[in-house]
Amino acid sequence: MSLAGGGKGDGMVPSPGDNRRLFGLNTAPRFGEEPAFKKKTLFVLGAGSSYEVKLPVGLGLAKTIATKLDVRIGDHGKNVGEGDKYLLGQFQNHHPQQFNDYLRAGWRIRDGLPTASSIDDFLDMHSHELMQTIGKAAIVRSIIEAERESDLYFDPNDRSKRLGLEKLEGSWFMRFVRVLGRGISKNNAPQIFDNVSFVVFNYDRCVEFFLLQALQAMYSLPLNDAASIVQDLSIIHPASFLILATAPRSRSAALRTTTSTTSSSRSELEHTQSSSLARK
Length: 280
Description:
- This protein has 280 residues and is mainly alpha-helical.
- It has two domains: 2-55 and 173-274, no CATH class; 58-149, no CATH class.
- The chain has 13 helices and four strands.
- It has a four-stranded parallel beta sheet with strand order 1-2-3-4.
- Strand 1 (2-4), helix 1 (16-23) and strand 2 (41-45) form a beta-alpha-beta unit.
- Helix 5 packs across helix 7 and helix 10 crosses helix 13 (266-274).
């Protein structure tokens, strides 16, 4: 088992030294070298793994969510707070009879979050259904926006712009993929993940998206072929399972590529490239 970064709520971030200790290998390829992962290897990724590409962790994510839920209605129904009008508008449209109850539930989260280390810790303290629902919806909304602001973002509709892997130089993502591909030819690319699996204690889809892009660049593969390979990689997102268990159907769709890659279809993996990571 290999460990990268901290847990989803502890806010730990890895240093370059951590990356070197993580893989403990010289990343320069050598002719005729055997694959690096000859034994089954599980990577457990915490919040620090996504922090390297500018995703929020712990207190940072909690602060973003608290701001989104700061919706205060003034004269003529105008929002006089800093809250996310779109997010609350969805609750108003779909749950008009309960909207005020959801609004108050959001305020409870807003006011209570400063006392917790993370949104996860805070929601664990409360079994209130409306707080759980609006809190998890705010997590989804915040992560989707953060993905768009991350170093993995690009516009797929602009063919002159593609993900610049050079932006990720020095990160664990690049160190990992260099070790991963060692000794594996293009003909054997479909077996590249045979001995690798992930448990990712993050809500985002950075690992899936990066590997999809990296395989295309490494082996000059079309998107469909890269997606087929990544589809066989086991990636479990325990935190996302908790959201999917209670989220409305529309919210679940936004996270359908994050639960377990082994249960995803190829079209869902391809959707990762053109969804919120790569589309404004």
